[in-house]
Design goal:
About 30% of the residues lie in helices and about 45% in strands. The chain is of the alpha+beta class.
C-alpha cells in the first residue's frame, strides 16, 4: 500500500511540474460591438526559449489543435510578417471557424503586435499585443486584444461564454508553449 501511495505522489508531482503554465488573470469585457481581452500568465520555461516559440509564426499550429490552418503570406506592410490562421472556436453550443489575416510586427524587445486585415478576415477590426518578460527562471506573458467580430455573438452571454472558452484554449496554448520552449532550451 505504501508503495502505491509513493507512486501516486510521484505521478502527481510529475504532472504538476509538467503543467506549470498558469493563467493568473483573464478578463473579457464587451465594449459595444468590441471584445477586449487581457490575460496575464506565467510560463515555467526560459524566457528566450518562450520568445523563440511565440515568434515562430509559421509553426503556430503546434500550440493548439484549435488552429486548423496557419500559413505565411506575402503582401503585408513593410516590417511585418503576414499570417493567415483558420481557428476553430467553440463556446457552449456555438462553434465557428474564424479566418484571420494578421500583420505581425515586433515594436520592442520581447513585444509582438498583430493587426488584423479586415478586408480578408472574419473580423471587422482586431489587434493583439503580447509582452514577454523574465520572471525568476521562467517568463511572464501579458496578452491584450481587442476584436470586433463580423459575426453575431449572443449579447447577454457573450463575455462570459468567450471568457470560459478563451480560458480553456489559453491553457492549452500556454502548456504547449511551455513544453516546446522547455524542449528547445535543453
Amino acid at each position: 500500500m505504501g508503495r502505491l501511495v509513493w507512486v501516486l505522489l510521484c505521478l502527481a508531482l510529475a504532472w504538476r511540474t509538467a503543467e506549470a503554465a498558469r493563467i493568473d488573470r483573464l478578463d473579457v469585457e464587451r465594449e459595444g460591438d468590441a471584445y477586449r481581452v487581457v490575460m496575464d500568465a506565467t510560463i515555467d520555461a526560459p524566457t528566450p526559449a518562450v520568445w523563440a516559440v511565440l515568434t515562430d509564426l509559421a509553426h503556430l499550429g503546434k500550440l493548439s489543435p484549435a488552429f486548423r490552418e496557419v500559413k505565411l503570406l506575402d503582401g503585408g506592410p513593410a516590417g511585418t510578417e503576414r499570417v493567415r490562421t483558420l481557428t476553430r472556436f467553440c463556446a457552449l453550443f456555438i462553434c465557428r471557424n474564424i479566418n484571420q489575416v494578421q500583420d505581425f510586427s515586433r515594436p520592442g524587445p520581447r513585444r509582438l503586435h498583430a493587426l488584423v486585415d479586415p478586408a480578408v478576415s472574419d473580423l471587422r477590426e482586431g489587434e493583439a499585443d503580447w509582452r514577454l518578460r523574465a520572471q525568476g527562471g521562467g517568463a511572464r506573458l501579458l496578452f491584450e486584444s481587442r476584436i470586433v467580430p463580423r459575426f453575431w455573438v449572443p449579447p447577454l452571454i457573450g463575455p462570459w461564454m468567450i471568457r470560459r472558452s478563451l480560458a480553456e484554449q489559453a491553457q492549452v496554448v500556454l502548456a504547449s508553449l511551455e513544453r516546446i520552449a522547455r524542449r528547445q532550451a535543453r
